[in-house]
């Protein structure tokens, strides 16, 4: 399986911090933000990773991460430029040649997980596998609704009235059909090709597996969540509460 980290976009919610560099290169406690999703993939055994980045900060990423050799002798990084953010599903179109005939795990560059995805990735065979975590503000995210038997019955993108408190965090696993599926997604009212439409496509096929995420999760795209993530990681690294 191959991995993609989506680290493009303009991150206007974090201005003026992101006037000088990419959001995903901002420090979160003692590491650049990009190190955390990168470590999530590496710890799950993924060695070939594509980083999709904005053109104005391409040199910053190359200087920091290089070829990937620093992270292990078998680790290889590739880079693609996303000229403008067109939605999360666009990552699979940009990464078409990289994905090839393999399955792919895509993680958002501002998502920080405590959960270990090794088993989730190792056991994946076909279809789509996404994740769910209970949050207090589901209206900010894609939301998955379960029935009494824990079966998925609906998925909505940032609903005004969420049908559950289970958000879909930013790690998604798909087989290589996702490239063609992404090409068939029509832009939403926001002008983006939404990843929730890929979730629904696999759900309609009866091939979408949704698993629960354990531990903390941070979508570090706001000042508060960026600070919360840094404070949590500081406490964890320094053994607070032990």
What is the global morphology? Answer: globular
Give helix and strand order, one letter per element, not per position: EEEHEHEHHEEHEEEEEHHEEH
Mean pLDDT: 92
Beta-sheet strand percentage? 25-35%
* Biggest beta sheet attributes: 8 strands, mixed
The CA-CA distance between the termini, in Å, is: 36 Å
Poorly predicted regions are: none
Describe this structure in words.
Strands 1, 4, 5, 6, 8, 11, 12 and 13 form an eight-stranded mixed sheet that branches. A two-stranded antiparallel ribbon has the order 2-3. Strands 7-14 form a two-stranded antiparallel ribbon. It has helices at residues 35-43, 58-65, 90-94, 96-99, 118-122, 178-183, 195-204, 223-237, and strands at 2-7, 27-28, 31-32, 48-53, 76-81, 104-108, 111-113, 128-134, 142-146, 152-157, 166-167, 171-174, 208-212, 217-219. Strand 9 (142-146) and strand 10 (152-157) form a beta hairpin. The chain has 242 residues and is an alpha/beta fold. The protein is 26% helix and 26% strand.
Produce a short descriptive summary.
With 242 residues, the protein is an alpha/beta fold. The chain has helices at residues 35-43, 58-65, 90-94, 96-99, 118-122, 178-183, 195-204, 223-237; strands at residues 2-7, 27-28, 31-32, 48-53, 76-81, 104-108, 111-113, 128-134, 142-146, 152-157, 166-167, 171-174, 208-212, 217-219. The strands form 4 sheets. Strands 1, 4, 5, 6, 8, 11, 12 and 13 form an 8-stranded mixed beta sheet that branches. It has a two-stranded antiparallel sheet with strand order 2-3. It has a two-stranded antiparallel ribbon with strand order 7-14.
């Amino acid at each position: 399986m191959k991995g993609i980290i989506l680290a493009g976009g303009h991150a206007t919610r974090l201005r003026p911090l992101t006037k000088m560099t990419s959001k995903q290169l901002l420090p979160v406690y003692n590491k650049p933000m990009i190190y955390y999703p990168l470590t999530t993939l590496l710890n799950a055994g993924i060695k070939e990773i594509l980083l999709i980045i904005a053109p104005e900060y391409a040199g910053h990423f190359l200087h920091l991460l290089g070829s990937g050799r620093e992270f292990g002798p078998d680790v290889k990084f590739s880079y693609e430029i996303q000229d403008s953010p067109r939605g999360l599903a666009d990552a699979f179109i940009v990464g078409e040649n990289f994905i090839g005939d393999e399955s792919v795990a895509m993680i958002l560059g501002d998502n920080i997980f405590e959960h270990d995805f090794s088993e989730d990735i190792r056991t994946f065979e076909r279809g789509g596998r996404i994740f769910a975590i209970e949050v207090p503000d589901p209206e900010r995210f894609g939301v998955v609704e379960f029935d009494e038997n824990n079966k998925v019955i609906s998925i909505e993108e940032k609903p005004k009235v969420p049908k559950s408190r289970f958000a879909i965090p930013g790690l998604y696993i798909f087989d290589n059909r996702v490239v063609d599926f992404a090409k068939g997604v029509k832009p939403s009212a926001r002008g983006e090709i939404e990843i929730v439409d890929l979730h629904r496509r696999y759900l309609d096929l009866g091939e979408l597996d949704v698993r629960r995420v354990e531990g903390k999760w941070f979508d570090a795209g706001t000042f508060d969540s960026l600070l919360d993530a840094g404070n949590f990681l500081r406490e964890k690294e320094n053994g607070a509460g032990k």
